[in-house]
Amino acid sequence: MDGVNDSVVSEFVLIGLSNSWEMHLFLFWFFSVFYMGIILGNLFIVFIVTIDSHLHSPMYFLLANLSLLDLGLSSTTVPKLISDLFIDSNIISFPKCMVQIFFIHVMGGVEMVLLIAMAYDRYTAICKPLHYLVIMSPKMCVSFVMAAWTVGIIHAVSQFVFVINLPFCGPNKIDSFYCDFPRVMKLACVNTYKLEFIIIANSGLISMATFFFLIISYIFILVTVWKRSSGDLSKAFVTLSAHITVVILFFTPCMFLYVWPFPTTSLDKYLFIVDFAITPVLNPAIYTLRNKDMRVAMRRLSKRIMDSSGISE
Question: How far, CA to CA in Å, does 210 sit from each of 23, 62, 238, 270, 282?
């Protein structure tokens, strides 16, 4: 923490996404609507999984945790962005910037492990259906979630301890709408060449390894389902298309920024709109509108609400 005390810079200026007033207005409504959808959609999934006993299974337990995680990840950046657009301010204090970086990487690390757990859940359900409930026991599901949070915290701390001690004494403008390692490190008063390779070894390689592991896992599951479905590959693809969509959307920005953490363009800040705003609102839609069990659960909930209303009258 001595490095923080040595820093002259007490706040950073976030350049944001656009300098146009018309674009500011559009972005304000865009992110406001999406964030409301993120809150309502993900909390609804958690609510319906909690109250409906038919959804008390490993798959939906992990899905509810993914929904909470999406809400948390989005909340690290989107409320600040909406506030900046509304009051036309783009200042973030040094401590708040560091806190934002820390929680972005905690949530990101947790989500990576959780997506692996969901892939393993689908592998077990499809490839070992007779042993599914034994393998994916409640204890195993809780262990997955605890392991995810442990990995997420270690992942964040292992990078954060280097950045928090960097001296910042000159430029303070960040060409983005949020704080993150690559762009903040560029503003340090020392050579950060070695730290950039720490980012590659940590966030970059972990993102790539997790992405390819998940894609290979889903290909293996698709081939297994295809063989057991008499060649009906379309049925297999529909079964896992939601998971594949989430994986591609989540990991593409991560690999773009962290595999080459030497920002020379502003493209990455637009790509991360996908992770912070689009994916968290798509997940509820994907897992509810395209999921038969969730649709049935929603009909049961609607019927219960209508029945209780009729009784009260």
Answer: 35, 18, 22, 22, 21
Q: Output DSSP code: residue 202.
A: I
- Tell me the C-alpha distance between 170 and 177, whole Å: 20
Which residues, in sequence order, are CB contacts of 16 under 8 Å at separation 6+? 81, 84, 85, 90, 176, 177
Contact call for residues 14 and 92 (beta carbons, < 8 A): yes
- Give the whole-angstrom CA distance, residue 38 versus residue 248: 19
Nearest CA among 85, 107, 99 for reference residue 14: 85
Closest CA to 13 of 187, 163, 159: 187
pLDDT at 149: 96
Residue 236: predicted pLDDT: 59
| Res 264 pLDDT > 90 | no
Q: Is 170 exposed, middle or buried (0-12, 13-18, 19+ CB in 10 A)?
A: exposed
Contact indicator for 242, 195 with CB cutoff of 8 Å: no
Alpha-carbon distance of 7 to 164, in angstroms, equals 10
Q: DSSP labels for 15-59? A: --S---HHHHHHHHHHHHHHHHHHHHHHHHHHHHHHH-GGG-SHH
Residue 218: exposed, middle, or buried by beta-carbon count in 10 A (0-12, 13-18, 19+)?
buried
Query: What pTM was computed for the model?
Result: 0.87
